[in-house]
Amino acid sequence: MSAAQSHASPAAARRSFDARVASALADPLLKTAIDRTTNNARTKRAAAIAAWPEFPAARELGRDIKDHVIAHLDHYLVQFEHNAQASGAQVHWARTGQEACDIVIAICRKAGARSVTRAKSMLGEEIGIPHALAAAGIERVETDLAEHIIQLAGDPPSHIVWPALHKTREQVKELFLQRHQDPGPLDSIEAMVASARRELRARFMAADVGISGANFLIADTGAVCTVTNEGNAELTTTPPRVHIVTAGIEKLVPSTVHAMALLRLLVRSATGAELTQYTTFHCGPKRPGDLDGPEEFHIVLVDAGRTRMLADGLAEMLRCIRCGACMNHCVVFRQIGGHAYGATYPGPMGAVLTPALAGLPQSRDLPRACTLNGQCKEVCPVAIPLPTLLRGWRDRIWRDGLEPPAVRWGFGVWRFLVLRPALYRLATGVAVRVMPIFARGGWIASMPLAGGWTRHRDLPRPASQTFMQQYRRRPRP
Amino acid sequence: MRPAIGFAAIALLEAAGCRVEVPLAQTCCGQPALNAGDHAGASRLAQRNIAMLEPFDVVVVPSGSCAATIRVHYPELFHDDPPWRARAEALGARTHELLSYLADVRGWRPERLALAATATYHDSCSGLRELGIQAQPRRLLAEVEGLSLLPLGDAESCCGFGGTFCVKYPAISNAIVAEKARNVAATGAQLLLGGDLGCLMNMAGKLHRNGAKVRAFHAAEILAGMGDGPAIGEQS
């Protein structure tokens, strides 16, 4: 979230949310791109879960592992630090995103880095590593294929698993034709991938520092686990002299066995595959006799609001393993895409996280722009009660006076009536007499105070008497 | 809006052997306040409703989301108020959505009921995910002679109603219901059935705006033999 946004008033934030939504809904290619990826992901996930009868038990196990670690963060963080140091890694602690970026930039400067390769990391996006590198004058090369696409396009990511979800393959082809050195005809997806590969291969080998994230931090070995499908994380972390990991403290697991239990949930929920192509455990720098590997291995452990979430009743959100299933199944995300959320994390998990990370007044619309249909909770592989957490933000919005005045006023009138049954019956009786004035036949196409409804759909004309009026006059035996 | 659903519910409950009373003092379950974060408003209304409904053996509601509000969310409202929490839980345990009550608790089946039509069914999200209502309405509708149910594409997706969501974020709601209306129209069914009036009005209103000829009813109306009467938006 940019500084300009983070200081905006709730009303200004609402206008900018509405504007982003309007521009997303006006873009038919965006909807095509969203549907291609999310429909495919939903179909494959459903097949993977159907073929895995132990899923409910695995989900409970995953939830319990995360809850246990989150309840004992103090223990596992120290254990992880100890074991990582024993493997030769240097461990750094960052309270804020800014502190983490400062640590990363200091390591890069000390290494005399001019070029840095980066494997996809949502935490890196969250804390602003791309901006920090640019500000330090260090060249950044994104090596994940989708991140490469959005770096060329100058876009932020729009999904936590498929950052370039908002682009169709046809748009990517145009981009590569304009921006790649030697694209060739690009007449197939394979040709497009090959062109990106040619573009990136030399950059991998020329980088001074490689920066990655972490899917799991393994406390009893001090190892960092990453999953990818392209092998780019391995090429980002192995050839450069220095490897830096930035990871949120909630990524801890007690052991490799626990990481395996969560990997089964993560990959099936994200892509429907049983495993990613590459699952790598990075453990310390190059040892004497090793053929390759970095000379320095740094791990930056980042809080950036996570311990505050723990204190603010959002501990369940720290279970999140960033699979993206909640957004793939979200009817709102599937219409407006990721950029409309205006933050690093979109979809239901983003609507819970963003108010915690960026502040509620600026992100008030995210928990409100939700139908509470519950599908996100149903598909979450670690059973995060996302609708309950979104309701928690709505309670705060109401308590803090962040609900728009017109809505509060409307609720005031409604509350006055529903607590007074005789008056309520009178008011509903009047309403069903007034509404037919606006009807043509059985439908109302437009009516004062009902524009939110009738702009897009017709309103059925109500019966001429309310149920209560008819019920009281019903013939009795 | 549609008293026919209330009268259909009474007729079905009486057919299933219940003595039905409608307390005059009822207004709303409080779901709008609950979903808006107005905890105090929702709690006051919940206390009124709990006191009003406590004398009855069973509370039956012809809407999944209203039933889920009483069953699931009333107890949550009083998480730090043990006496009211106990009363909310006791009432919640006796509160049922109409179609699941008829099918699961009363074991009722429609008899000698015929309607020659094709229909598709929308599972409203609260009923589906908070109360587990999916098979029950289909089981009951399968007993109606001549009625064939056609599967709805992407059936488990929300219709975009979401209570006040549809007027707070009309553009997003419209995009969602437009997709739902396309899926409904693609079934080729003559009727759209469901168990929640809000979702039905949302989908029927969009279908009518689009010029589609699909007719929408609450499933209770069909089961009460009112399927030859006016659909939502038709005049008697």
Offer a few descriptive terms.
heterodimer; A: 477 residues; alpha/beta; Rossmann fold; 3 domains; 6-stranded parallel beta sheet; 4-stranded mixed beta sheet; 24 helices; elongated; B: 236 residues; two-stranded parallel sheet; 12 helices
Question: How far apart lie the N and C ends of chain A?
Answer: 67 Å
| Largest protein interface, residues of each chain | A-B, 60 and 64 residues
CATH topology term of the largest domain in chain A? Rossmann fold
Number of DSSP E strands of chain A = 13
User: From the alpha-carbon coordinates, what is the Rg of chain A to the nearest angstrom?
Assistant: 26 Å
What can you tell me about this protein's structure?
The complex is a heterodimer of chains A (477) and B (236). With 477 residues, chain A is α/β, with parallel strands linked by helices. Chain A contains 24 helices and 13 strands. In chain A, the strands form 3 sheets. Chain A has a 6-stranded parallel sheet with strand order 1-10-7-4-2-3, sandwiched between helices. Chain A has a 4-stranded mixed sheet with strand order 8-5-6-9. In chain A, strands 11-12-13 form a 3-stranded antiparallel sheet, with no helix packed on it. The longest helix of chain A is centred in the N-terminal third of the chain and has 23 residues, at 28-50. Chain B is of the alpha/beta class and 236 residues long. Chain B folds into 2 domains: 3-102, no CATH class; 110-223, Rossmann fold (3-Layer(aba) Sandwich). Chain B has helices at 3-15, 31-36, 39-53, 64-77, 82-93, 98-105, 125-130, 135-141, 165-168, 170-187, 197-209, 219-223, and strands at 59-61, 95-97, 114-122, 145-150, 191-194, 215-218. Chain B is globular. Chains A and B meet through helix 2, helix 19, helix 20, helix 21 and helix 22 of A and helix 1, helix 2, helix 3, helix 7 and helix 9 of B.
Which helices and strands, and how do they pair?
The complex is a heterodimer of chains A (477) and B (236).
Chain A: H1 3-6, H2 10-25, H3 28-50, H4 55-71, H5 73-86, E1 90-94, H6 97-110, E2 115-118, H7 122-127, H8 129-135, E3 139-142, H9 145-153, H10 169-179, H11 189-206, E4 209-212, E5 216-218, E6 223-228, H12 232-237, E7 242-248, E8 252-253, H13 256-271, E9 278-282, E10 296-302, H14 306-311, H15 325-328, H16 333-336, H17 347-358, H18 365-368, H19 375-379, H20 386-399, H21 405-418, H22 421-434, E11 439-440, E12 443-444, H23 451-454, E13 459-460, H24 467-472
Parallel strand pairs in A: 1-10, 2-3, 2-4, 4-7, 5-8, 7-10
Antiparallel strand pairs in A: 5-6, 6-9, 11-12, 12-13
Chain B: H1 3-15, H2 31-36, H3 39-53, E1 59-61, H4 64-77, H5 82-93, E2 95-97, H6 98-105, E3 114-122, H7 125-130, H8 135-141, E4 145-150, H9 165-168, H10 170-187, E5 191-194, H11 197-209, E6 215-218, H12 219-223
Parallel strand pairs in B: 1-2, 3-4, 3-5, 5-6
Helix pairs in contact in B: 3-5, 4-5, 6-8, 10-11
